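Interim report, section 4.2 (structural modelling).
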Amino acid sequence: MAIEISKLKNGLTVATDPMGHLETAAIGVWVAAGGRYETEAVLGVSHFLEHMAFKGTISRSALQIAEEIESVGGYLSAYTSREQTGYFVRCLKEDIPLAVDLLGDILMNSTFEADELERERGVILQEIGQCADNPEDLIYDLLQEAAFPNQPLGRPILGTNETVNGVDQAMLRSHMKRFYGSDSMWVVGAGAIDHGALVTLCEKAFDGLTALSEAAKPEPALYHGGARIEQRDFEQAHITLGFPGVGVEHEDFYAAQVYSEILGGGMSSRLFQEVREKRGLCYSVYSFHSGYTDTGLFSIYAGTSADDANELVSVITGEMERLATKVEDKELTRSLAQVKAGVLMSLESAYSRAEWIARYLPRFGRVLTPDELVKRFESVDAVQLKSFGTRLMETRAPAFAALGPVAGLDSYDAIAARFGG
Amino acid sequence: MAIEISKLKNGLTVATDPMGHLETAAIGVWVAAGGRYETEAVLGVSHFLEHMAFKGTISRSALQIAEEIESVGGYLSAYTSREQTGYFVRCLKEDIPLAVDLLGDILMNSTFEADELERERGVILQEIGQCADNPEDLIYDLLQEAAFPNQPLGRPILGTNETVNGVDQAMLRSHMKRFYGSDSMWVVGAGAIDHGALVTLCEKAFDGLTALSEAAKPEPALYHGGARIEQRDFEQAHITLGFPGVGVEHEDFYAAQVYSEILGGGMSSRLFQEVREKRGLCYSVYSFHSGYTDTGLFSIYAGTSADDANELVSVITGEMERLATKVEDKELTRSLAQVKAGVLMSLESAYSRAEWIARYLPRFGRVLTPDELVKRFESVDAVQLKSFGTRLMETRAPAFAALGPVAGLDSYDAIAARFGG
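Predicted structure of the assembly:
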């Protein structure tokens, strides 16, 4: 990585990671905006705004936006997460000027026309319906709500039918004004890209962008825990467990990642071996740790048949107990090898490199190099892992979400009684 | 691409596509085996065998297989499609010898032990349950059945609960003997890999592999058409339409791919613009053309609310009618640009390059170069596209699958009446 970072006169940060052997580039704009920054009254507005960015600017219709980028074989997309909204293009190197011009245009000059807004509302309501039909999507919304109830971090990013129906032009404009500023946006390019050229393009495309009048900061999240059970006509009982994790700057963040790899990362992980290989209870079972700015959530997902759901929860709990007692050296070595190889593989893709920069630059003001990242993982030892595992076991109120044929499940109190120290 | 291809003494083909700037490699073994080659009595056995390849060999337990590859940060996986089964590893370049040794071992020396088989049966039954909970998975099984009823190509790759319950050790052994031979398997490596070294490794790892006693050839598929409607407690009405497509060697194959790109490929496609952008009826709407050896299936998917489902089908049909009448020059130009850029992007990933080779070598005996592929797309003209579109419109019995709250849908006969010329 030979990352270059510049700050434009208007305060916008532009970073590049050139990969000389490529013919294509990935360019994105990441914004410190997302579900985490929303009050209940405007739930879903970040995601709605992300959709409306494609629906027309002062000089381009929605159709023109789509046709211009696709007529050169480019790919334009966007996503909204809890703490970030990302807009990005994949294109041939000769089309970078068009890509940057488009990104600037949709983020600076969108018009949010009333009829486009109404149609896009319909699209988003359909997206909510699609999410409701996907148990692995839906159950994470339930789990997040169980972990962080009555807080932005616990609410669905898409919003609800009700809140999406309430979004209007004024809300979109006000949201953009409040969160889209030169000090809350980062332009990142990787692949067949030149730093100086990207800076010049951004000076033009983001001319007139100003800093936010007030820096946006989400309120601190407070883990709560509890159960969200939804009986649905699904084949499988979909089960998730959640526990308080740590924020990305917390000293235990890397221990949490390694713990998750050992418990439920790959085929050799404890959960895969015990739940799937030894008992054949699941096709999918895995764990992961989501780190936010100031907090985190450690989660486990598994899908099984109604009859096996109680055994499944019991086996998962048992594996967490065991891992809090003893971590084997070979597990630590293995998870480190997985992290290292994963880093090398992700560096081979232009988009992954851009996303790497976008992960660190906004939060840390600098980019962790691959070597630094590996060193942080190397510093994790068995003592830290057992301590993290013990902390999970001491959770008095785990978050628990279940979806499907779950009428026969043990009570939340019985499950929670396995925890709490 | 600087592809090298060798044939070992035992008849096994080994191909490489070295990418000098990478630190990692992708190595896979592709087998001419899959759902397409199964009789009804052994439905799901190809997929079951693919699972059992991970469950222990003469010298390695299932746990050892998982631990050996993951302890060097490697990633081992596999999939079964209708005409191919693929086993592959992503790893650092220094671990290629281990990767090849493992691939050889699981494909030459698997033991299919009885207790492992029973547990894996449970895992596969869970996988079937998970697929049944995913409308976008399930509906393609319904559509495939509507298009090719009572034929291997119309049956689910995973099998059914009943057929999976019937699989035993003898069936697995017999399936392997019948389909896994030096003349039905292709080893492909891409990335940080040397051809000579891979050949030497394969000579050892696949020593003793013999040619099939009889070349396996699936029976020709016969498109039939008809409806499969399943009322389910989903939020959305999931709708697919299917039409006879063409095989990968058919002269219209590239026209079919371009037609699909124009009708329902990207944001600027006819369906995206008309269904999503102008009417807000869907979040997801797209088309694609699946080419098999001797036939193909052209499909459209969309998810919408129960109230909008009839309008949706009507709009889709209308767009197909329009496209059979007139293709605009700019659409042809745009789809070509998309194909070209897609080729360049896929060449940047080691796995995509290996998969590229595996797509062509088994079926054509050689690998299409990117230039050749682009030339084939460039040769497609508006006349061919209109003719392909007209042929779709002339389908007397389209395949139609609907899933969810679909009680209010127009009858199949009413939908089919829009077609048939």
